[in-house]
Amino acid sequence: TSEKKKFIPCGSVIMEGKKCGIVTTDTYNDWLVIGYTPVQLFFPEQQNFTLLKLGDNVTFESKDINEIELGDYKTCQS
Description:
The protein has one helix at 65-69; strands at 6-8, 12-16, 19-22, 27-29, 32-36. By secondary structure, it is mostly beta strands. A 3-stranded antiparallel sheet has the order 3-2-5, with no helix packed on it. Pfam families: CT_C_D.
């Protein structure tokens, strides 16, 4: 990996090795950013502070910027 860390905004979908993650706060790192989600996942002021739990399966769908700006997306919980 690179020594130079870059700004990675909250909501970035990242790859690190064989792992995929979603950044819940703005940070700096050398992760490979492969996408973005407008869905807020982290609520530090609430008792149940995360939208996802360990072991949840996540499916990513491609959306264009117009769909995101219009809020034309939904979150799913099973």
